Amino acid sequence: MDWPTDLEKELDDSEEKLSTLNEVVEECVEFTAEQKAYSGCLVTVDFRGDLSVQYGIACATDVPCASGSDNDEELAGTESESKEKGISEALKDDLRKYCQQAAQAALLDDSNTANDILYFSLCSQMLRPSGVYGWGNSLISANFNIIHPDNSLEDIAQDNAIDKITKARDSLDTTWIAQETESSRFLAFSQLSRKSKNNLMTFCVSQMLSMNVRGLSGAQDHVVDQLKVPFCEYWRPTKTNYLKRLSKPQLIAEFGAIRGEAWVLEMENATKGVVVESLSVWFSGEADGPKDERLTWIPPQF
Predict the structure, then answer these.
(1) Same-domain status, 229 and 148
(2) What is the pLDDT confidence band of residue 9, given thresholds at 50, 70 and 90?
(3) Into how many domains does the chain fold?
(4) Does this model's pTM top 0.70?
C-alpha cells in the first residue's frame, strides 16, 4: 500500500534507531581490545578430565576507571571503525548455525564422509598424546550430543533443510529401540542390515556435526567443500536474517558490484531502510535464469 510520506519517514527513523540499539547490544557479545588487555582466564580440569577455560576473569582493582582522556577517545574511535569494517558477532554466529544445518542436511547423502568424520574424531581422542586436549572435537560433539542450530532470531528451521532431515529421521529402522533391555536392543541392532546400520550411523553423525563460518577451521572448510553443500537451496538472504543486520555502507559494499553503479548512485543518499527494501525486492524478484545471482549469491562466511 502507499504510505503517507511522514509515516514512511517515521518508519525509516525507527529502523535506524533500532539498528543503532542492536549495534549497542551486539557490542556486548565479545570482549573489547581494552577489556582483553586487563582480563585473564581461569584454567581448570572438569569432572571428565577435560581442560576447561573461563575467559574474561579480572580483579576489580584491574578494571580501569573511565578517564575521558584523548587516548580513550582514540581507542573508542578505533574500536568503532573496527566494528564498521566487519559484520557483527551475532550475525556471524547466526550464519554459522545456518551453515551447520545446511551441512548436516548435505551429509545425509554421503555416508563415506560421515564415516570419516566419526572415525577420525574417535581415533583422535583415543590416540591423542598424553596431556594433549581438544583433539577430535572440531567436527562433532565429543559427548555424542545432538547439535541444535538455534539462532538469535529463532528462524533457523529452514524449510528445505529441516524437511530433508525430518524425512530422513522418519525413514530410519528404529524397531530395535522398542526392546526392553539393553542386551536385547543390542542384539536387535546387530541383526539389522548393513544398509540400515549405515543409514542410522550417517543420520546420527549428521546431527552431531558442528560447523562454524568459513576460515575458522581447516577441517570444517574441507568437509563443506567435500560435501559440496548447496547453501543456496537451504538459505536465502531476507530482511530479517541478513539485510537489516548490516549497516548501509556494508550493504552497498556487499551488493554494489552485483547491482551496478547506477544502483549505488541511487542508494547513495537513501536511508538504510530504502537500501534494505531495494535489495529485498530484488532478491524476491523473478530470476533471469539458474545462474542469476538472486539464486546463487551467498555470504563469504559460507
Answers:
(1) yes
(2) confident
(3) 3
(4) no
